[in-house]
């Protein structure tokens, strides 16, 4: 993006400097004239006309005026430059913050509050285009709030005009602007004084607008508009990015559902097993204070721990050596999928035992990932208690006791301790 920030500011400075330079350049001309009068005229023995003296006086006076103007404009320029520098720095910080905010509701709030702060306004609104092509108020702030989700038709009011044309609007007196419509724009007829509104454009398409109401002091300037435009460009990219992430997450939730349903229908006897294991593992993991991202990996590992079985036909699953390949198959299936790849390691190890008598590697103790040690306890608890299990189910307390007896053998004693506390604290009813 080619930045236009401060272009009007620097254009003004150049104009002032040109004028000042022109005026002050008269000084050497005046000196030349003076020297001529003083030394050349007497030499030529000509009489000095009075108007030459007047012209000399005027030339010197104009030169002094020019110098004074130059000093004044230079000082003003430095002050403005300092102010612009501060605002540009603020803009850089703001846009960095946008990139780091992935949740769209937080992002919209950040955008409008930052726009208000950067331009010192009383209120601000952010409107996004909906699927029908209308604008919807998504976030507002200030003393003159607008209703959330209120619809503004494209073309109506200043915000609608900006959405329709894709051009910014800078209105320093709303009473003199026919586009202003208090029914759809920010502020009422009594309170609205000035409005600055810019489009949010992503890949040549208007996706919304930012509308700011009432500059706290002074009027909106071209420089304000350029800064808001730059902020809006970054905001539009961040909104599009955040929407994309949300869509991806929603897609992955749906894909996860399809995979789990496919597993359940493939092995009908184990229907619901993966979800129950995920539920128990989540209780244990939370009790042990596992960070949220690791809980997510554990969740997916539980859902897909036996997915490798679909690579082994039902008939072959009774062959012990063939069956033992399913953790490796599961690992190979899950690892390439970015959302689930961190769960793959847990799946690979889900038949390892704490005492080292498991498979496929015979890892023991803390060599086995913590998530897997949790998954194992959760899985066995479900196998012991589930009606769909190949064995007759036992009741909850008997299952807890069975697991407790095997702490230090099959299971990590710390995980078993957390499991017993988690089960006791929860209202868990085994299905
Ligand atoms: Fe398994």
Short description:
Helices cover 57% and strands 9% of the residues.
Defining key terms:
alpha+beta, 9% strand, binds fe (ii) ion, 6-stranded antiparallel β-sheet, Hypothetical protein af1432, 431 residues, 57% helix, Beta-Lactamase, single chain, 14 helices
Task: Provide structural commentary.
It is a single chain. By secondary structure, the protein is α+β, with helices and mostly antiparallel strands. It folds into three domains: 7-98; 103-243, Beta-Lactamase, CATH 3.30.450.40; 267-425, Hypothetical protein af1432. It is 57% helix and 9% strand. The chain contains 14 helices and six strands. The protein has helices spanning 7-24, 26-44, 50-100, 104-119, 157-165, 222-266, 273-287, 292-304, 320-323, 326-334, 341-348, 370-385, 396-405, 413-425; strands at 121-129, 135-141, 151-152, 169-171, 195-202, 205-215. Helix 2 (26-44) runs antiparallel to helix 3 and helix 8 packs across helix 11 (341-348). The longest helix has 51 residues, at 50-100. The chain is elongated, with a radius of gyration of 37 Å. The model has no long low-confidence stretch (mean pLDDT 85). Fe (ii) ion is lined by residues 305-306, 326, 350-351.
